[in-house]
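Before the break, one more example. Copy the sequence into your notebook; we will annotate it together after we see the structure.
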Amino acid sequence: MLQYQIIPVTPFQQNCTLFWCDETKQAAVIDPGGDIDKIIQAVEENNLTLCKILLTHAHIDHAGATQDIVDRFSIPIEGPHKEDQFWIDLIPEQIELFGFSQVEKFSPDRWLDQGDRVQFGHIELEVYFCPGHTPGHIVFFHRESKLAQVGDVLFRGSVGRTDFPKGDQATLIKSIKENLLPLGDEVQFIPGHGPMGTFGEERISNPYLVLE
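Here is what the structure looks like once it is written out:
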């Protein structure tokens, strides 16, 4: 059974998330943007073995602590899609733009794409390619739990920004409507920031989806 804990990190209160297998205690950390001590504390408090880092995209508030965790735990990085190499290359500029302290560049061990799977313990997550907020954004979905970690694609009542370089709102809305909403109204999602929601609620009431 999948268990999870949301760990808000960085001044942007980004929803870094621990996913783990209840049986084996093997875990993956999704979008470790910073505050590595908070992440390690959650791993230790739940008696977990951290096995991999999963990235929805390469904005610094989602990926800033990635290399620090690799250095500490010697685990692989999976994700995002290869198109987000663009944002990894811009980490020095992101540090200045968003006011972060020094962040190390990292190199994913495995780029992810539509239809891929990631595994830890007895948990398997499906990968959906959802560009628009960034060109290489992906989403992780656990079908049995009807739970998705959507990064900055979708929020309660809103969607991800598209005014950054290589962002595109039409592409983002298409990603949501063609990849996420068909997964089912009952699916709960963990966004990159703010409270959880369901795809059904957003399909009916999210102004960006209703008006498009």
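The chain has a mean pLDDT of 96. The longest helix spans residues 169-180. Try to locate both features in your own notes.
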